[in-house]
Design a protein that fits this description.
By secondary structure, the protein is an alpha/beta fold. It folds into two domains: about 90 residues, 3-Layer(aba) Sandwich (Rossmann fold), CATH 3.40.50.2300; about 190 residues, Rossmann fold, CATH 3.40.50. It has twelve helices and ten strands. It has a six-stranded mixed sheet with strand order 5-4-6-7-8-10, sandwiched between helices. Strand 6, helix 6 and strand 7 form a beta-alpha-beta unit. It is elongated and about 60 Å long.
């Protein structure tokens, strides 16, 4: 908070950009004291008209994870052609916690997998930490030992433990937030090879869209933009590992699902702003 206050006091920045996680409450409290200062919050929402100098960008991570779920749901089928997949129709999800954003990832992942594999079962675990790689690895091994062959870890640094377990067990990973395979490629090719693709948020693209609107004279402050697959701000990574390790037939179905989202033919459920019971029903529908 002191740093944000100092920057606001200086009054020399056109806009101050912040990750909404952990800062939104602070910004909403201090923004009225600095009406001339503009703030841009990422991964956040503001009530329409409530904060005239705050612009928020929220991401439809559920849409990106839907595509990740399509990959996982097809890979785990017995006829997928994937050498390390079994015919048990079991996939996994490991979250850092059970907060709204992580639940949004989970809901999309489940719906994507169910759309291509109605018999799918999804094992769900939570680390309770964003950094405990040992606990995450332990949870991953438990899922793999139960017959899971693909895990989607949305657990930040802790997720590295899940990748390690997948490499040791000869299983698969759907990465998150960045192109994890490419990041690992230079230091650990074996780990990179178990990451089929990654569900990502293109923060840079969303900031480009913001700059474009400002350049056109649009005043976005006091509003929230919710961006997803259609705006190319969420989706999955298409890289050499994806094209090398995922069969063309699966990639074709993923492209069809992506087009259906863009065209509005698929409306992915969200965990944001809904009753917890709605989320629980989706999770329970694929409970082992």
């Amino acid at each position: 908070e002191p740093t944000i206050l100092d920057l606001s006091e200086e009054g020399k920045y056109t806009a101050i950009f912040l990750n909404g996680s952990g800062t939104q409450e602070i910004i909403e409290r201090i923004a009225p004291d600095y009406p001339e200062q503009k703030y841009v919050l990422l991964d956040a929402t503001v009530e329409e008209g409530s904060s005239e100098n705050i612009y928020a960008i929220s991401y439809k991570q559920n849409e990106g994870s839907y595509l990740g779920g399509v990959v996982a749901g097809l890979v785990t089928k017995g006829d997928s052609g994937m050498p390390n997949a079994n015919a048990d129709n079991k996939i996994g999800f490991i979250g850092g916690d059970a907060g709204p954003i992580i639940s949004d990832f989970l809901v999309g992942y489940i719906e994507g997998a169910k759309s291509v594999n109605p018999d799918i079962k999804v094992y769900v675990s939570y680390v309770g930490s964003w950094t405990d790689t040992a606990k995450a690895k332990e949870l991953a091994n438990a899922q793999f030992n139960s017959g899971v062959d693909v895990i989607f870890p949305a657990a930040m640094t802790a997720g590295l433990g899940v990748i390690e377990a997948a490499e040791e067990k000869g299983k698969y990973i759907i990465g998150v937030d960045s192109d994890q395979a490419s990041l690992l490629a230079e230091t650990d090719e074996d780990k990179a090879n178990v990451i089929l693709t990654s569900v990502i948020k293109e923060v840079g693209e969303s900031l480009y869209l913001y700059a474009e609107k400002v350049g056109k004279g649009e005043d976005k402050y006091g509003t929230t933009d919710v961006l997803g697959v259609k705006e190319e701000t969420t989706g999955i990574v298409i890289n050499d590992y994806y094209t090398k390790n995922v069969p063309q037939a699966i990639r074709d179905q993923v492209m069809e699902a992506e087009k259906a989202i863009v065209d509005g033919d698929i409306d992915v459920s969200t965990a944001l702003g809904v009753n917890e019971q709605v989320v629980n029903e989706i999770v329970d529908s694929v409970k082992p």
